[in-house]
Amino acid sequence: MKIVKQSMLFALALTAFLVSKAQTADEIINKHFDAIGGKDKIDKIKSMYSESTVQVMGNDAPSTLTILNGKGLRMESDFNGQKMVQVFTDKAGWAINPMAGSPDPQAMPDDQYKAGKDQIDIGGPLYNYAAKGSKVELLGKEDSAYRLKVTNKDGVVTTIYIDPKTYLITKSIQTGSMMGQEMEITRTFSNFQKTDFGLLYPYTVDISYGGQFNITQNVKKIETNKDVDPKIFEMTK
Q: Phi/psi at 132 (nearest 5 deg)?
């Protein structure tokens, strides 16, 4: 009986030790921001501009992305002479997609807008998440990565994977829509490099739309705190 009691005490002590060593979601998030350069740097970013090449079905398309932090995002791509535009603001979204048979600006469906509007925040969904009305839950580990479930105030859920060695975000999974079809969108991040502002940023992003359609974005240039005219986010007529 004495041996059994000692075994139980040892098991309880081991459990308590492991619990005390387990990291919380906030600890992991804080280490992530330290790894990419610090929240103090992100606090100072007012805008971001990038130029990229998007590879789609063997073709390269030039693309630009302009973000005015917390206010708006505008992405433009040129696919074989057809200009595609996607805009999110803090109030609504709109797009021009001639490949879908609509060369004129169209208001974005509400579900698509809610799924993508967090992109106007340069810090990402984990940055000051509680102040933005989001909730984060640590789901444990999968494929040797921490899994964080982020639910924003609109109920949109994003699962974020963080490498326990580097504390960089390696992947995110979210349910979204493309061409009116709901699907799981997986983004895989790699080729991290420092921007002109000293923040680590993934210069390569592979995006899978439900495994049916894949694109790869390779960043060529990033500039921070450029002057941005808010009018570029207004829906043209």
A: -90, 0
For domain 22-221, is the CATH number 3.20.20.80? no
Residue 118 Ramachandran class (φ > 0 left, ψ -120 to 50 alpha, else beta): alpha
pLDDT tens-digit series, residues 166-217: 999 999 999 765 556 677 899 999 999 999 899 999 999 999 988 778 999 9
| Residue 92 in tokens | 């609504």
Q: Calculate the CA 16 to chain-centre distance.
A: 35
CB 60 within 8 A of CB 66: no
Q: Please, which pLDDT band fits residue 20 given cuts at 50, 70 and 90?
A: very low
Tokens of 74: 């505008």
Residues 206, 131: Cα–Cα separation, whole Å: 30
Euclidean distance between CA atoms 93 and 42, whole angstroms: 24
Q: How far is CA 96 from the centre of its chain?
A: 22
Phi-psi region of 155 (alpha: psi -120 to 50; beta: other; left: phi over 0): left
pLDDT for the residue numbered 228: 96
